[in-house]
Design goal:
rod-shaped; 3 domains; about 0% strand; Serine Threonine Protein Phosphatase 5, Tetratricopeptide repeat; mainly alpha; three-stranded antiparallel β-sheet
Length: about 500
């Protein structure tokens, strides 16, 4: 920019000591204007652009038809970043003198800085027509054509939803067009769509500080709030953007989506609180179809629907919904907690431990620590024999239910009942018979059951289950000191007539 904004400094030669002859009025005016220009040049050289601007303005006021004065003031305005004003001065300079090469260069530079690459190319081509060896004009023409290309690529990539590439193209274009609000807005919109909300807000806010009525910047600011699930505030910005530009299509669509999403979500929440889970599921599903780009709100909707599915005991569906929620927002603690509980309920303890570990790493609270500890305990317990499953009873089964279950399973797997089976079957049934005896030994003893339920290692408690005799458990349960034999056949209800010396089982 320094090269493009270089002033036409003309250093006055030292004058003789004798007083100058009196000049006609127009000559004196030109001389005074030239003095203002020289003072402006001096301030420009010292980078005091505000003072330089003031003196160039005085020179213009004295001689409003001097092209170089407008050219110098344009250069100063460019250094101050006031490209629109600079453009006006540069255009005036070439209107006054169409052969003014630096005027055409400055006009082109202003067009380029403001993002009008096509107009910039025309200016640089004109400069090259006047001076085909001008290296600055050659380079600036290349820059302008590069910006045109970046703009075309960005437009195509936006249609393809390749927002990262759009941001890349806009960053490259903004290197040559730093004052182009259009490029900044497109970049900010894509940053918002990529979930990079602080960056997008920063860009939009910078524009609004310079122009509080910029509808595009208001729209992007609202979009960031919308995607951060601050829907009410977002609607305010969309409405403000529509006041500035009633035909702003994106603001209109976003405003409509925001209002619809807020209404559906609130209706779903109300249905859930009322216990109408089927309706809540339908409303959350409808809300999820409104705007796939709203990641944070959709993450919450998936989690809410997962909670509904958990209430309906559709645990696999609940897990899937929570998984979708954390895919959209991997910091969403509530979704991890909900999924972890569903994993516990479906006895997927390793997965539950992973989720609780993620939660505890993020928020080290006592509650989260306890949840992790409980899941780790359940995982440890799951790797032992599940005596409740072996007996086929619930973990809250009563003493009578445990005895009844043992009686049924012990008779079902007793080796004598399978004496005519193959060696392989006999071995398997003998193993099951022993496990049934183990299960009954533990679950029928309140102290052992408590230790087992708490996850303690029974072998460490001096209860080595490898040495006990399942037959002794069987005899002790059924009574009778003597031998044991099966008689008769089994009917379709698996009832067994068992003869034991000293007693007759029904």
């Amino acid at each position: 920019m320094a090269a493009a904004a270089e002033c036409d400094v003309v250093m006055a030669e030292a004058t003789a000591a004798e007083p100058e002859p009196e000049l006609p009025d127009d000559e004196e005016t030109r001389r005074e204007a030239e003095s203002f220009k020289e003072q402006g040049n001096a301030y420009y050289a010292k980078k005091d652009y505000n003072e330089a601007y003031n003196y160039y303005t005085k020179a213009i006021d004295m001689c409003p038809k001097n092209a170089s004065y407008y050219g110098n003031r344009a250069a100063t305005l460019m250094m101050l970043g006031r490209f629109r004003e600079a453009l006006g001065d540069a255009q005036q300079s070439v209107r006054l003198d169409d052969s003014f090469v630096r005027g055409h260069l400055r006009e082109g530079k202003c067009h380029l800085s403001l993002g009008n690459a096509m107009a910039a190319c025309r200016c640089f081509q004109k400069a090259l027509e006047l001076d085909h060896r001008n290296t600055q004009a050659q380079q600036e023409f290349k820059n302008a054509t590069a910006v045109e290309e970046y703009e075309k690529i960005a437009e195509m990539d936006f249609e393809k939803r390749d927002y990262r590439k759009v941001v890349f193209c806009m960053d490259r274009a903004l290197e040559f067009a730093p004052a182009c609000h259009r490029f900044k807005i497109l970049k900010a919109e894509c940053l918002a769509l990529l979930g990079r909300y602080p960056e997008a807000q920063s860009v939009a806010s910078d524009i609004l500080r310079m122009d509080s009525t910029n509808a595009d910047a208001l729209y992007v600011r609202g979009l960031c709030l919308y995607y951060e699930d601050c829907i009410e505030k977002a609607v305010q910005f969309f409405v403000q953007a529509l006041r500035m530009a009633p035909d702003h299509e994106k603001a209109c669509l976003a405003c409509r989506n925001a209002k619809a999403l807020k209404a559906k979500k609130e209706d779903g929440n109300k249905a859930f609180k009322d216990g109408n889970y089927k309706l809540a599921y339908e409303l959350y599903t409808e809300a999820l179809g409104i705007d796939p780009n709203n990641i944070k709100t959709n993450a919450k909707l998936y989690c809410n629907r997962g909670t509904v599915n958990a209430k309906l005991r559709k645990l696999d569906d609940a897990i899937e919904d929570c998984t979708n929620a954390v895919k959209l927002d991997d910091t969403y603690i509530k979704a991890y907690l909900r999924r972890a509980q569903c994993y516990i309920d479906t006895e997927q303890y390793e997965e539950a431990v992973r989720d609780y570990e993620k939660v505890y790493q993020t928020e080290k609270t006592k509650e989260h620590k306890q949840l992790l500890k409980n899941a780790q305990l359940e995982l440890k317990k799951s790797k032992r024999k599940d005596y409740y499953k072996i007996l086929g009873v619930d973990k809250n089964a009563s003493e009578d239910e445990i005895k009844k279950a043992y009686r049924k399973r012990a008779l079902m797997h007793h080796p004598d009942r399978h004496s005519g089976a193959s060696a392989e079957v006999q071995k398997e049934e003998e193993k099951k018979f022993k496990e049934v005896g183990e299960a009954f030994t533990i679950l029928s003893d309140p102290k052992k059951k408590t230790r087992y339920d708490s996850g303690q290692d029974l072998d460490e408690e001096g209860m080595n289950m490898g040495d006990f005799d399942a037959n002794n458990i069987f005899k002790a349960f059924f009574g009778g000191p003597g031998g044991f034999s099966f008689e008769g056949k089994f009917d379709c209800c698996w009832e067994i007539r068992v003869g034991v010396k000293g007693c007759l089982l029904p």
